[in-house]
Each structure stands twice: as structure tokens, then as C-alpha cells.
């Protein structure tokens, strides 16, 4: 039997885009929204994706355990299961080059739960990057809303992501978007726990971990 994850992984970019806007206005300018598989990205678009990722994230390498390893990151970014939702400025004439102003990279996958050998279908958000000059216009919110719509349509249980604790701006943003600390996050403490079993000791030891796993249940 084909699983929901396999079904979503097989879906074409056109199928994922169904029902979503392909052109929207922000701050009085029009932007194109396009869903693409990693294998459908042109070489110039790959370069723009890498440049935007580098512009936004390189600064975190000095203050966190996040390692700057371009070959390994590019392998992850352009893996065959990676899907993109790219936002580009719409040129006025044919000659005007489109600027990539934001993108998300996501995959459909199985993710651990707190129960042994129990996995959930998730839309895993690997990247959400908005270029500096285009922030606070509502682009991030619309991208999250689109991913929620895709996740619901393809029957994923949650959207999940990993965020560095040092990235306070992103944490505030995800909080506004309705994300919570996921029970599998290293520093998650079960509010119903009594504080005297072995597993909770393990949780305490992990408090120094510099990232969080956030999720939002899709219904
Ligand atoms: C985090 C990020 C994606 C937000 O995108 P954005 O397009 O600026 O967000 P929006 O304009 O859609 O903002 C939605 C809401 O989040 C709030 N918000 C966005 N960035 C925020 C920040 N840095 N601090 C506090 N609140 C923020 C907005 O004020 C808005 O709230 P409102 O509804 O009360 O007006 C963007 O800042 C970014 O790309 N940062 C660098 C890359 C990064 O850290 N990505 C996440 C890696 S996990």
C-alpha cells in the first residue's frame, strides 16, 4: 500500500500548487510564487537560493554549533526530495531580471514521536528565508500559510522545523504563526510530568542544546 508520505513525494509541482496563489502583491509590488522540485530548479535559481541562504545564515556559525559546510548543505538543499516555494519579483519587461526575494524548502517525511517506533507524516520545513530588504511585509506569513494548506491537502499531521535558540527573531515569528515546542524537542518538558523518572533526567542533561524543534498540528 502506498503511504501518504509516498503519495505526497510523488505529487507534481503543479499538483502541490493547486489552489495556491501564483501572484500576490506586497507593499504595492507584485511577486510570483512558484513551487518547484529541486530537480526543476535552473542553475541561476540554485545560485540565487544559495546566495540568499548564505546572506541570511552565515552569521550564525560563529555564535552556535551550526557548522558552515557548503558541500553538505548543498546536498541537503538540492536533494531529490527537496521541494521549493520560491517568491520572485515580477520584472516589468522581459529583460528585467527576476529577483529571488524569499523561498522555503520542505520535504514530506516520517518523523519520530515520543513513542518508540511510532512515526508521523510531516511536512518538514528545512528552510524559510526572506531577503533582508523584504522582511516584515507579510511574505513569511504567506509562505507558512501556503505550507499549511499543502500539508493539510496531502494529509500530513504536522509542520515541523528546527530553529537555533540564538535566532530570536525567527522564534518570535514562529510563535506568531502558532508553532509550539514539539514533544521530541531536546528541551521539551512534559507539563503533566512529576519530575522523578529517568527520562526527565535525560531531558535536563540536554538543556545546553542550542536548537529547538517546533511544530504546528495541521487540521
Ligand atoms: C523569520 C523570517 C522568515 C520572517 O519573515 P517575514 O516575511 O519578515 O515575516 P512577516 O512579515 O510575515 O511577519 C509575520 C509576523 O511575524 C512578526 N515578525 C517577523 N519577524 C520578526 C522578528 N524578527 N521579530 C519579531 N517579530 C517578527 C511580524 O512582526 C509579524 O507580526 P504581526 O502579525 O504582529 O504583524 C525572516 O525574518 C527571515 O527570513 N529571517 C532570516 C532567516 C531565518 O532566520 N529563517 C528562519 C530559520 S529557522
What does this structure look like?
- It holds the Pfam family Acetyltransf_1.
- This is N-alpha-acetyltransferase 40.
- It is found in: Cytoplasm; Nucleus.
- Keywords: Acyltransferase, Cytoplasm, Nucleus, Transferase.
- There is one protein chain.
- Strands 1-2-3-4-5-6-8-7 form an eight-stranded mixed β-sheet.
- The protein has a single domain, classed as Aminopeptidase, CATH 3.40.630.
- The longest helix is centred in the first third of the chain and has 15 residues.
- Helix 5 links the parallel strand 5 and strand 6.
- The protein has seven helices and eight strands.
- The protein is α+β, with helices and mostly antiparallel strands and 219 residues long.
- The site of coenzyme A has 19 residues, from strand 5, helix 5, strand 6 and helix 6.
Give the helix/strand layout:
Layout: H1 4-10, H2 13-17, E1 23-26, E2 29-37, H3 43-57, H4 70-77, E3 83-89, E4 100-112, E5 119-130, H5 139-153, E6 158-164, H6 168-176, E7 180-181, H7 198-205, E8 211-217
Parallel strand pairs: 5-6
Antiparallel strand pairs: 1-2, 2-3, 3-4, 4-5, 6-8, 7-8
The structure holds coenzyme A.
